[in-house]
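ok trying again, last paste got cut off:
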Amino acid sequence: MPVFAYRGRGARGELVTGTLEAPDQGAVADQLLNTGVTPVDIKVTSGTAESGSPGWLARLLAPKVTLVDTMLFSRQMYTLLKAGVPILRALAGLQESAINPSLRRVIADLRVSLDAGRELSTAMRGHLEVFSEFYISVVRVGETTGQLEEAFNRLFGYLEFEREVRDRIKTALRYPTIVILVIAAAIAIVNFAVIPAFAKIFEANKVALPLLTRVLIGTSDLFVAFWPLLLAGIVIAIVGFMAYTGTEAGRYNWDRIKLRIPVAGKILFKATLSRFARAFAIAARAGVPIVQGLTVVASVVDNSYISRRVEQMREGVERGESVLRTAVTAGVFTPVVLQMIAVGEETGELDDLLNEVADMYEREVDYEIRNLAANVEPIITIVLGVLVLILALGVFLPIWELGRVMLRK
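nice, full thing came through this time. structure:
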């Protein structure tokens, strides 16, 4: 299909240029007029269309469409559609103003699909790396009910909440990660620099070494002599771990273990349940059927262990069981949450009460993060105390013995 370069004037008279792939000039003119652009000049070009697929190198180097990009896209679509702007013209405006070239290409492809007669939700299914199944389902319901702008508004609120949860999790894990890296660096310095220096002094002066000192020197010699093998082992272990967690069973087991990590596991667990409750509330309020809602929510929680429990809830609902009964069977919800689900299901206000559940978990996550330092400090103090004790007994006791030998001489 030929590619045409065009020049036109927008609704305010501004100059608009670009390229489009179409059967002929008439089709290009129709696309431009549908988006509110009056064509001035249309010529065949040998270049590629903006909506065309870039080369493999360009795809590799192109920036990814981030959560913030999708969030802003949802908010802008809500604003434009609420103002009465036609969807094709709204997408054209967002394509022109998009900063991320990857998002610009996605919007261009959406425009081409819509111009070909497809629905927006159908067009989005070609970009699952940008729009999740949950996102597409809400858009689909918005199209069916004629409330597409409200669907984008709900999606913006959900994505903003999702970003806040991810930021909180990163904040919660940052401090423990830094501490672990510092301790690992300290152990490496002690084994590669400190202990070998003391070992030479002890060996030169024929000092009788206690068992702990001999163990430390042996460990240091092992590090110094076989560090390439140890480094290779660490790399292999990391690659193997990534390969294992890339499998379905591996990811399920790791996601279950993550929720049991001291201090951080509690934060991850509550943040995941908060994400579940918020997504389920959005789906219920948008009119998504409960079975379909549980299906798409299972892919949103970003934890295979919790996702498996949500899928069990969906299977129970399909068998005719109540949401409360399936939630009890899942075994991951607190009694307070189960009570709110029971009330919501009985009164028909499940979406409102699930939003309250999400708010409750969100407040608990905030509280846990604020108290993270206080919870981690005792663990750090114990670990550092053990390291100092080992160094004191293993290194400094022989030095004192060396001092006695020198004084006797």
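cool. The first helix runs from residue 25 to 34. Strands lie at 3-9, 15-21, 38-45.
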